[in-house]
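Onboarding guide, step 5: your first structure request.
Type a short instruction followed by the sequence, for example:

Predict the 3D structure of this protein.
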Amino acid sequence: MLDVPALLLVGGKGTRLRSVVTSAPKPLAAVGKRSFLELLVRQLRFQGVRRLVMCTGYLADQIENEFGDGRAWGLEIEYSQEPEPLGTAGAVKLAARHLKGVSDFLVMNGDSFLEIDFAELVRFHRAHRGLASMAVLEVQNTSRYGTVLVDGASRVTGFLEKTGSGGPGLVNAGVYIFNREVLDHIADGPGSLEKDIFPRLLEHGVYALEQRGMFIDIGTPEDYARAQRLCDRLYAAAQGSGDSSRSE
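The system replies with structure tokens like these:
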């Protein structure tokens, strides 16, 4: 078992995906015969994470109805429901009441999948002793994601915003380990981890561990269609039986 809880950020409205997923929150969009969120839950359970906190918002009841308290999955699942849209940082701050006594915790975007060894990321984080560690991966076109700048010691030195015309580079893959002290740097109310919090944490130590496995998000109709094509590979990767080659 992995001795860290995982926060799943599943509260967004998924506006760009509304044309193809009309009546469900984005993380419940079907990929094959199961929801995308089930893919993430299976990945976490397979790697020994046993406690999840789902940070919900839009159509929160649908998510809670599908996963309940987690007993059917052999997990403990709690819910932190936003009273209003809080963004990624605000959602993490609101969930602080579920993290009492916890020194480190995983944070994952609920609309992206990354083939990753969570235990390796935890070891990396604890060895570097920063406030936060993030999974990054190299892509050929960073224009959609922005770029993460990393030095030779794996320390993040800066971020470049989306430019619309990016070349190859490292991007944030949406999986993090946070020291509990990160919560002290997040104000109550709406906020973005990517825009508001990570730049302020750099002086305290943010480190990046590069990944080379499959990565996909379902933020646009085009990428959602791609997830359908990769469905079998995604579920194999989530349960440790996929190949390690990068998706399309």
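Each response can be followed by summary notes, for example: The chain has seven helices and 13 strands.
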